[in-house]
Design brief:
- With 156 residues, the protein is mainly α.
- Helices cover 77% and strands 0% of the residues.
- The longest helix has 33 residues.
Length: 156
């Protein structure tokens, strides 16, 4: 296919070797894979640390709290995936203005959702613990973990 005057053509993927194509794919997908691993790792590390505490309620509390946050993060996964798709389209079209607009829109939506989580942290936490229904001891410790993690703080 010929290009019209003034149009640019993307890279001809047929000219790439399988090795260079593989490197390009891993170069793009590697950071995404690592970012997807980071969220569950937080809960896993907390669980490992709590395993050294005197009773099983500590591990249960962290497990319940980590479950709640994993659900929150996956519910908001649409923002990350949607942003990736729109940013890729803007990048492919070589439209720097749209690329910047995609990032700013995603940042605004993310900030609003984050603010919503903070404002609604009490009812969301109560609902989550009611649905999971752990024991009283696990609930008490889990609520403390939830309260600390919603703000991104470590225990004092």
């Amino acid at each position: 296919m010929d290009t019209r005057e003034g149009e640019t053509r993307g890279p001809d993927l047929r000219e790439e070797t399988p090795v260079s194509w593989s490197r390009r794919v891993w170069g793009i997908s590697g950071p995404v894979i690592l970012s997807n691993l980071s969220i569950p790792l937080l809960g896993a590390v907390d669980t490992a640390v709590m395993g050294h505490m005197p009773g099983p309620a500590y591990v249960g509390a962290v497990a319940v709290g980590a479950l709640i946050f994993n659900v929150f993060y996956w519910i908001f996964g649409f923002l990350r995936m949607g942003t990736t798709g729109f940013a890729a389209q803007a990048h492919g079209a070589e439209d720097a203005v749209e690329r910047a607009a995609v990032i700013w829109r995603a940042a605004l939506v993310g900030a609003c959702l984050g603010l919503g989580l903070i404002v609604l942290q009490v009812p969301l936490g109560l609902a989550a613990f009611a649905v999971i229904d752990p024991s009283a001891e696990v609930t008490a410790l889990g609520e403390r973990y939830y309260d600390l993690r919603i703000w991104g703080r470590r225990p004092p």
